[in-house]
Amino acid sequence: MLSGIYGFLSASFFVLMDAVDVAFTEAAVGSGISPLLMLLTVALVGRNEKHESGKSIPALVLVTITGALLIIGTLSMPEFGSATAPAQTHVGPHYIEKSGSEIGIPNIVTSVLASYRGFDTFGEVAVVFTAGIGVLSLLMLKSSTVQKPVVTSAHKHKVLRIVSKILIPPILLFALYVQFHGDYGPGGGFQAGVIFAAAIILYTMFFGVDIAQQVVSFAVLRVLAAFGVLLYGSVGLVSMLNGGDFLDYSALAENPITGQHIGIIVIELGVGITVAAIMVMIFYCFAGQVNDTGEAGQ
Amino acid sequence: MTQLFTHYNYWIVVVLMMAGFFIVIAQGNLVKKLIGLNIFQTSVFILYISSGKITGGTAPILQEGITVYSNPLPHVLILTAIVVGIATTALGLALVIRIKKAYGTIEESEIQQRDHTC
């Protein structure tokens, strides 16, 4: 709960810092998915903890000394909000001045993310994918051969059922808007992916994993997660076949700007698909574990 | 004294970072350690984002009539870092669940004890 509030607070902080794209992501991840996973884990491993004394005083001393040293170190850092700080003078101005004419989309964050730093983003998507595979291999879902329609408590709760019906479609629509409007406003594949996943996770929480799996099955998620990464990579390959470099979108069409547009939309789609699929998959894995231990407990 | 008003962003970062660090080294509970790592991670996010901020600047979306934009580069780095962060946190939590299954506990001291007795 506190962690959710913390996530929301840091999201509003990022809006103040002009980082609207980052704020979107943090709002969905920090106050939605992350505390949820923490709670599920606590539900699985039990909330009792042993109190150990004697460790905290040396730790406190160490932390205080490190903190003091770091604060002394910050005194030589540039002032907050200064326009002449080293961070603002190297590659940042280039992006701000040139991206409008080179890439042709208003949202600089998207053009840096998808085009200038396309390799980097490809790597990040691959890391998300690998982490998803890691979770999958650690917490393998038992494939239930018998599809028994489990009527969970949410079916009896009228309020929950109706609220979910009102809330979930707009969230999905909003995720799609964020996905395809990422060129012009704040948004993009990463944000849309987590928002989309949040909607499906909400549905899973209301109706249980079994029913949610009838809507979005596990096999589909696995295919989608891999498909997103491959889509991203294949854009790079197509641009190579057209005579450009890997992930050089200007080679995708006659007009370099059009090529950039196509490339960015397609790779953002790939990012969105992978992120959404992996997030839902991770949640299924965790929730499936809870169900298993719950049934064993009964 | 002027330092206090021009560098407060770094101080917030340091406080958060040390809070996270303290949780990681002082708590024996593995879930709490992960929460500490999360707080540590957020402090790094704040460090990056606040270093990209320019006074009087606005969000880096090109518009008519605006000349000062905040630096978009830290935004890009942190945007992806958040999503990667949640994925790796999930991996860590999955490991915790497996440790609980294998050892029956998630307290660091008890796990080490069991390793030594084996």
Automatic annotation (TrEMBL), chain B:
The record's subcellular locations are: Cell membrane
Q: Which InterPro entries match?
A: CPA3_antiporter_subunitC, NUOK/Mnh_C1-like
What does the UniProt keyword field contain? Cell membrane, Membrane, Transmembrane, Transmembrane helix
Q: What is its main location?
A: membrane
Query: Which stretches are transmembrane?
Result: 6-25, 37-56, 76-97
Instruction: Report membrane topology.
Output: Multi-pass membrane protein
Among its keywords, does the record have Transmembrane helix? Answer: yes
| Pfam families, A to Z | Oxidored_q2
Asked if Nucleotidyltransferase is a keyword of the record, the answer is no
Family affiliation: Belongs to the CPA3 antiporters (TC 2.A.63) subunit C family.
Q: What is this protein called?
A: Cation:proton antiporter subunit C
Q: Which organism is it from?
A: Zhongshania aquimaris
